[in-house]
Structure formats: structure tokens, C-alpha cells
Amino acid sequence: MKSLKIVLSISFILISCFSCNVLDVSPVSVITNNSFWKTENDAEGALNGMYVNLRAIEDALTAIGEQRSEIFQGGVYGTGGNDMLHNALSADQPLHTDWRIYYTVINSANLILKYVPGITFNSEATKNSILAQAYTMRAFTYFAMTKTWGDLIIRTEPTESASADVTVKERSPQADVFKLIKDDLDKALQLYPNNNFPTGRFKWSKPAAQAVKADVYLWTAKRLNGGQGDFTTALAAIGEIEKADVSLLPNYGDLFQYTNKGNKEIVMAIRFQDLDGAANNHFWRQWIIGSAVPANTDSETLKIINPVGGGQGLLVVTDLVRKQFTEDDTRKKASFHEVYTTDASGKSTFYTTLTMKGQGLITGGNRLFLSDIILYRYADILLMKAEAKNALGQDPSTEINLVRQRAYKENASKHVFVNGTKEQNDEAILKERLLELLFEGKRWWDLVRFGKAFDLVPNLQSKKGQNHLLLFPIANGVLSLEPKVKQNPGY
């Protein structure tokens, strides 16, 4: 019987392309447990491999995090098969990466958690940090998965055998998955030796683990009846993040510059970098292809897209979302550029958009889409804080206005938020998250958490009450390999 199989050596073979420590081991044809897990360098290599595996799922993470929402439509040449935005998912055509690639990340974390405790380190703090990062990675990945598919196969030991008693398992209830996630986060937070960020902010840290914790507890507060206790826990986690070296950048657009990676607003990102083996990330789909560039566009657009094209232009922002930005909101031009054509009489006509947040870098006359993928940043944390405070009956004005002050700058006085009812505040927070975090893989989860997916996604409005649609189908390819796994209801 075929089952989920994860190759042990993948994480370690890939480490040299992550611009970190390279393993110092004797040459062997196959990496095995007998030749590995001996030294501190082995542990560091495994850790780097875990982050390579995280990078491999960034496209899947961002797709499930926003493509089902109201923010995307097809570009000049359509969607190119990126059709989750139509919300016509099925087991035959799930339109997204199935869960096997996520279990690769979990397996890399499980290997670390199994073997690193047996390695002698020069510094116990270094050892604890590696274990903390593995616990955080496992929690983060299971959180993304359970929001997507609900009940999951829980794997807390590495898959090192193809034996059916190891690989063939039933799904566990979502409540058990969340218990594991929360337990892992508690273990991680006890192990991190300090509250510092690693250089570049692309590895898990104590503040980043607190961000995952706040995210998780907001979700369980609203989706799993966690109530006031979970909101309080989320708020406390955010308070710990605020003690770290983190702040809003003065200019919104500076956040996303390739030359400004790891800035003080970043809490956790997935690192992409030239010459380290990384392929273009998902922003490639949101940049115009050369053949679609109109000859009669303006000089500003031509300057922005030089060298011409480089992307695919398959996912562009919808008119519905584009028109919710006011002209005095600096986030508009920093998030997307509107392309217009001009006819012989001088009349301008809207044509398409370019996503400005992930422009990457230009080298050798080519654009490489290697901007970091931001998982958490401080403005996101502030709006989570506003959400938790509002749920607890506290005034969320301070946090909302901090985000707005940067967005509107000298016009901020025209956009001051004033505390209202809980419902009014939630509506304002949800919209602020749309404007602030557009294209950052947050929108679908925000809509589900706030209970607004069927209200705000046009092609779901006629399906209100069909709550099974909030989960994704399990791909038939997975079902054929996992005989004990049953399809989600409704698919």
C-alpha cells in the first residue's frame, strides 16, 4: 500500500544553498542516521534544511491564505490556472497544493526534535534555540494546515520507515491538533534563550513564536469558542512582542524593498536571495508579462516595469478592492500600480495593475522575484491587538490610529478612528487589515476568522450557510495514498 513517504536526506542536501553554515562531514553517498546527528554542525545543517523546506511551501501558504478571497481577478491573459479565486474547488481539482508538502516541513522539525537532544553542544542556549525553532515551525505549519483542512494526521515522530504502522494513520480531531499547536508554542517559548531577533529575521525567534501564538489564540477564540480566555492570551502574547526590537517604519513602501530585508517592522519572513538556489516566488504571477505591456501606456509605467515584463500577470487586484483605497492612502501606490492606456485624443483607460510589494531585484537585465515573503510584521501585530482588545470590550483606537497615521501621513487627521460598537470596530479592523496587508497571504484567513467570507467574497454570497466551503477539499491524490483518511464533508 502506498503511503506518505518523506525522504530523510532532502533537508540536509539542500542546506548549502541557504547562505548559512555548511556541513562539515565526511563524504558519503547517502546521508543516514548513522553518519548524521553527531555534532553541533549537523544540527545547524538540519535547521537550515528545515528553512529550505519552509521556503518550498511559500507559494502554497500564500495561495491558501488569499486566493479564495475577493482580492484577485485574472490578468490580461487570464489566470493561467490559478483558479482558486472562483471558489469552485473539488477533490479532483483542489486548485491548490495538497498537504504532502506541508508534512515535509513537519518531518524536518520532527527530525530535529528527535535527534538534537542527544547531541552535545558548546552552548546549551544554542541547543535550546534550535529546539525552540523546530517546535515553532511545527506549530506554525500545523496551524496553516488545520485552518485549511480541519482534522489532520498528527505526526510528532519523523517518518523514517515505510512500514504501514508508521505511515498509515487516521486524522485526529481539530481540537487535538490545536492542543498540539499550543503545547508546541509553550515549549518553544520556554526554550528560547532571549527575546532577540536573529540577523535578517528569517528564522523563528521568541517574538515570532509569540506572533504565531497570538494568531492561534485569536483563531480559537473566534472559531472554536475559546472566548474571553483565548482573547486574553492573544493580547498577552502581543504584549511580549512589543518588548522586542520592533517598530513601524516611517514610510510604508520602504517595508518591501529588496535592499531593506529584515527591517525593524519584520517579525518573521521567508528568505529569498539571489544565488542561493531560490526560484521566483509567487509575486512572479502578479507582475506583467512583456507581451502584455501596451505601447500606448505612460512613461511612469514604462519606467517601473523596466526591464519590460518578467512576470506573468495572472493575478491582479480586483476593481472591488482597488477602489477601496483613497488617493491619500500611501499604501495604494506601495501595494499596486495602475496601468493606463492613452488613445490618440489623450483619453486614458484603465488597463491592469502591477503588484508593487514583491518587485524583487534586477540583475543582468532580468527581474528576479526574490523579495522576502513576510509572515508577520508589526502592523499586523498592532491590528491583531486591536482585534483582541475590541473583543474584550477595550478601546482599539490607539492601535488602529498608529497604522493609519503612517498610511495617511499629513492627511491622517482626516482618517482618525473613533471607538464605536464592537461590531463597528470589527468592521473597521477587518477593512484596515485589507488595506494594510494586501497581497501578504492574510485576507482569506481574516475573512474566515471574522465570519465574513460569505458576505464579502462575491462568488460566495449566494452560498451563505454552506459552511463546509470554509474548509478545502482533500485532494484525491492524497486519498489514494492515505487509505484511512476520509474526504471533508460536502466534497
UniProtKB/TrEMBL annotation:
<dbReference type="Pfam" id="PF14322">
    <property type="entry name" value="SusD-like_3"/>
</dbReference>
<feature type="domain" description="SusD-like N-terminal">
    <location>
        <begin position="90"/>
        <end position="218"/>
    </location>
</feature>
<dbReference type="InterPro" id="IPR033985">
    <property type="entry name" value="SusD-like_N"/>
</dbReference>
<feature type="signal peptide">
    <location>
        <begin position="1"/>
        <end position="21"/>
    </location>
</feature>
<comment type="similarity">
    <text>Belongs to the SusD family.</text>
</comment>
<keyword id="KW-0998">Cell outer membrane</keyword>
<keyword id="KW-0472">Membrane</keyword>
<keyword id="KW-0732">Signal</keyword>
<feature type="domain" description="RagB/SusD">
    <location>
        <begin position="372"/>
        <end position="491"/>
    </location>
</feature>
<dbReference type="InterPro" id="IPR012944">
    <property type="entry name" value="SusD_RagB_dom"/>
</dbReference>
<dbReference type="InterPro" id="IPR011990">
    <property type="entry name" value="TPR-like_helical_dom_sf"/>
</dbReference>
<protein>
    <submittedName>
        <fullName>RagB/SusD family nutrient uptake outer membrane protein</fullName>
    </submittedName>
</protein>
<dbReference type="Pfam" id="PF07980">
    <property type="entry name" value="SusD_RagB"/>
</dbReference>
